[in-house]
Amino acid sequence: MGIVADAQRAVRNVWSVSFGGGLESSRPAPSTTVYQGKHRHLKRYDRTTQATGNPVLLVPPLAVTPACFDLRPGQSLVRFLLDQGRQPYVVDYGRFGYADRDLGLEDWTHDILPEAILRVAHEHDGPIDIIGWSLGGAMALLTSAAHPDLPIASITGLATPIDQARTPLLQPLRLAGRITGGRGMALATRLMGGIPQEFVQLGFRLQAFDRELARPMFLARNALDTEALARMEATDRFMSSMPGYPGRSFWQIYRSLVVRNELASGSIRVRSDLVIELAKVTCRVLLVGSRTDMVVPATAVRRGLEILPNAAETRFVDVPGGHLGLLAGPAAADTTWPAIEDFLGS
Question: What is the pTM of this model?
Answer without folding.
Answer: 0.87
